Amino acid sequence: MSAVPERYIDFHAHLFPDDFFDAIWAFFRREYGLEVAHRLYARECIDFLRERGAGAVVYSNYAHRKGVARTLNEWNIALLESTAGLSCFAPFHPDDDDALAMARDILQHPQVLGFKLHFLVQPFRPDDESLFPLYELVMERGKRLLMHIGTGPIGNGRVGAAYLERILERYPCLPANIAHMGAFEFGRFFSLLEGHPGLFLDTAFCFLPGKFRMYTLGPEPLEQYRDRLLYGSDFPNIFSHCDEELAALEAMGLSDEFYRKVFRDNGEALLGRAISGL
Ligand SMILES: [Zn+2]
């Protein structure tokens, strides 16, 4: 754990209003019989991560159905305005009235990095043409996407590397962070880093211990692609303590250079600033 820089960037956390968190945690309990290890609400999450050394936190939330993005975005703006060191991938749902106008508005906020698209939860496919204007808007504004588009920890008909490959044929420079390093198709997502300079992979949920462990390829690809990886905790929606994930990562014997880049330098370059405290 000592290899983690004293000040690091968490590029994949989740913050929601309290009633959304309650609903998500109840869903995990009902559907999977799982309790989150960190039952903390937004302000408590920020304090917890700050105490651990997170000098910047990038969080997201997502619109699981039509009509909730506006509520979340109002909440996001209030939180960002009152909290230094915080950035956000905002929700988007293509079926919302004025979806694109709302997207244009929220992108003006300097702490909004772009949009979270969660294809496990949201009922549309990544190559749905209704998303093309959003992809083009993000590129035009120099912002990014955070896409949950991999088949792990569970899949459905709307996730998988093939979708991203199809989108990249149309938009080869798409600026996107791929959540969970694309689990479980790690090799295919690592290959996509070649020739697609806008792509980064985040490590969220990949190294949890025991039955939740998703990443199994060993240290070599992590070192090979360390310039294109971003640490993310997936906090607080994980099912074992985040220290256990860092201990599992440490057991892989990765270089100090890996930690410096993945936990700090790559994130600083994307945020366009050096980190200090939250
Ligand atoms: Zn997540």
Per-chain topology:
Blueprint: E1 8-14, H1 18-32, H2 42-52, E2 54-60, H3 69-81, E3 86-91, H4 99-107, E4 112-118, H5 132-140, E5 144-148, H6 161-170, E6 176-178, H7 186-193, E7 199-202, H8 219-224, E8 229-230, H9 242-250, H10 256-271
Parallel strand pairs: 1-2, 2-3, 3-4, 4-5, 5-6, 6-7, 7-8
Helix pairs in contact: 4-5
The chain binds zinc ion.
Zinc ion is lined by residues 12, 14, 179, 204, 234.
Strand content: 5-15%
**Number of distinct beta strands:** 8
What CATH first level would be assigned? Answer: Alpha Beta
Supply the number of helical segments: 10
Q: Quaternary arrangement of the chains shown?
A: single chain
Low-confidence stretches: none
Q: Could you spell the SSE succession in H and E letters?
A: EHHEHEHEHEHEHEHEHH
On the 0 to 100 scale, the average pLDDT is: 95
Q: Which architecture name does CATH use?
A: Alpha-Beta Barrel
Report the structural category: alpha/beta
| Percent helix | 25-40%
Shape: globular
As laid out across the biggest beta sheet, the strand order is 1-2-3-4-5-6-7-8
Distance between the termini: 21 Å
CATH topology: TIM Barrel
Specify Rg, calculated over alpha carbons: 17 Å
* Total discrete domains: 1
Largest sheet: 8 strands, parallel
For CATH, the homologous superfamily is named as Metal-dependent hydrolases
